[in-house]
Amino acid sequence: MNLKKEIINATSEYFEDNLDFLKLSNTSKKYKSILEKISDQNMDIEKGRNDIYFDNGKALGTLWAALCLDDISRTRQFIRGIDKAIKDKIHSQKPLHILYAGTGPYATLILPFIFRYSNQDIKYTFLEINPFSFKMLQKLILKLGLEDYDITLVNEDATKYQIDPKNEPDIIISETMQNALVKEQQVPIFLNLMNQIKRDVIFIPEKIELSIGFNKAGVSIEAPKEERFHKEIAVFEVSKEAVFPLNQVKKQTVEEFSFEKKQIVIENEKLKGFNHLLMITEIQVYKDEKIKINDSGLTTPIFIKDIPENLKSSIVIDTQYQISSEPKLDYKITFSDTL
Ligand SMILES: C[S@@+](CC[C@H](N)C(=O)[O-])C[C@H]1O[C@@H](n2cnc3c(N)ncnc32)[C@H](O)[C@@H]1O
Predict the structure, then answer these.
(1) What is the residue-level pLDDT of the chain in tens, covering all 339 positions?
(2) Which of 330, 279, 273 is nearest to 307 (CA)?
(3) How far apart, in whole angstroms, are the C-alpha atoms of residue 243 and residue 274?
(4) Whose CA is nearest to atom 16 of ligand 1?
(5) Residue to probe by mutation, ligand 1, list 47, 78, 79, 129, most atoms within 8 Å of CB
(6) Which residues 6+ apart lie within 8 Å of 251 measured at CB?
(7) What residue segments make up the domains of the chain, in order of their start?
(8) Given ligand 1 and candidates 176, 177, 189, which is best to mutate, with the most ligand atoms within 8 Å of its CB?
(9) Is the dihedral of CA 110, 114, 117, 122 positive or negative?
């Protein structure tokens, strides 16, 4: 079988509406082994393992970026979201231009599409900051025999990359995040790229929401997530609508951008029966393709504080997202009786 057929066959399960974890897990293993075979590169070496640190957050080492494929719910939902976005856009725009920021060594999220569309239908810009991942990507593209495709490879920082106004993308894809949007560069990448383009460009993921939630006391970790986690209130959202309101006149650079501070108050009555405060991450990849609480490593709730038993006061939480060499949602928790 040639590589084109192998990749199409190996990735077909991601497109099935019926969710079968066993089949999905086999698909993921098959897809990964094809990529490993083509790349033929040991990544478990120093330059493969090392994360790289920048002003706007870290970029994953090549080995870890390649491993993202194994997060099967993440990979399935992103591929399905991208599929729907391409189908929505391709009728009005030909060739469609997809900008993929943070490809890793395999361009994992876009490779299932390349051979499913003709080289006339879609052109691609692949951005990757990590030089070792970038080298592997160049080699992979060469080995896949994609010379007839319009693919531009750029070894640059997507938080600083300048889009050519004569060659604007129609869809931007970036999965450069961890749960709670800590450490990696998802938010500055979103800001920099979306600041430069027309409003109808689709950014994938469409929406990332961080919320404060609680963990039910005494519920086993084996219990369904609906019984374990309670989402209380959203505190931060990354989406076109939330970050770039329609009435906004002046565009700001990543350095100038400052997210608004948010204060929430949770009455003690609401906290009865819960023992931990959590930071919850949810992702809307595109339309109904979502990654719900705890479905993926990207949406695993993070413990932030114990909730004392018999709490008599409310809890006040101040939050603000900060971009720095270690991006995160800063928060301060105060019990109202100590204010
Ligand atoms: C979480 S991995 C995901 C890899 C692959 N896209 C996937 O979904 O399986 C993120 C990738 O984005 C790259 N990256 C992180 N920050 C970047 C930036 N500012 N500009 C370009 N690439 C970046 C990392 O080096 C890494 O390869």
Answers:
(1) 699 999 999 999 999 999 999 999 999 999 999 999 999 999 999 999 999 999 999 999 999 999 999 999 999 999 999 999 999 999 876 799 999 999 999 999 999 999 999 999 999 999 999 999 999 999 999 999 998 999 999 999 999 999 999 999 999 999 999 999 999 999 999 999 999 998 899 999 999 999 999 999 989 888 989 899 999 999 999 999 999 887 776 778 898 889 999 999 999 999 999 999 999 999 999 999 999 999 999 999 999 999 988 888 999 999 999 999 999 999 999 987 765
(2) 273
(3) 32
(4) 59
(5) 129
(6) 195
(7) 3-338
(8) 176
(9) positive
Domain 3-338: give its CATH code.
3.40.50.150
Q: Are strands 274-286 and 302-306 parallel, antiparallel or unpaired?
A: antiparallel
Spacing of C-alpha 218 from chain mean position: 32
For ligand 1, the distance from its centroid to the CA atom of residue 135, given in whole angstroms, is 14
- Give Cβ neighbours of residue 156 (< 8 Å, ≥ 6 apart): 127, 129
Length of the chain: 339
Nearest CA to ligand 1 atom 26: 104
